[in-house]
Every structure is written in C-alpha cells, then in structure tokens.
Design goal:
Layout (H helix, E strand, L loop, with lengths): L10 E6 L2 E7 L5 E7 L8 E6 L26 H7 L4
Antiparallel strand pairs: 1-4, 2-3
C-alpha cells in the first residue's frame, strides 16, 4: 500500500553463511528479500526468520448485511436463531 504509514514490528533474519541482504518491493506490493552470498563453498545453508505480526481491522464495519436485515426490526432465520439463542 503505497502512501500509507507502516510501523515495523520486531523481526529477525539470521542467514548462515553471511550474505548481503537487500529488499525490493515488486509489482503487487510484496516485499522480497534478496540474499547474495560470497564465493565461499559451504555444505549448509541456514535461514532462520522470526516475525511478530500485529493484525487489526482497518474497516471493522465493512461487512454485508442480508436483505432481510436491512430494516429494523427484523427476524433471524431459524438456523441463525438456534445459533444465536444464548445471546438473544
């Protein structure tokens, strides 16, 4: 989302052997990490990633309302009444 403010949560990326890491944003706004390694020959490659993700609703009231519920008062459908009974 270009033009938006983003706060980066705590994260860690450990790569062995040592690599030069660059970041790119591609056409669909995905962030890609590119690791470039030296000429050293190794038998193992380890990439360990940890990320703390915070999810939140940007539009919490963005949902569909069934036609029958467009005007108040309304009656729930029988299957909905059974599921909602403890709350009604």
């Amino acid at each position: 989302m270009r033009g938006t403010t983003c706060v980066s949560p705590p994260s860690a990326l450990d790569i062995t052997p040592t690599a030069t890491l660059t970041w790119r944003r591609e056409l669909f706004e995905n962030v890609l990490g590119i690791a470039v390694f030296g000429t050293e020959q190794v038998t193992d490659l380890t990439i360990a990633s940890a990320l703390e993700v915070e999810l939140y609703e940007t539009m919490p009231l963005n949902f569909l309302v069934e036609d029958y519920a467009q005007h108040f008062p309304f009656r729930y459908r029988p299957e909905e009444q059974a599921a909602l009974r403890p709350y009604l």
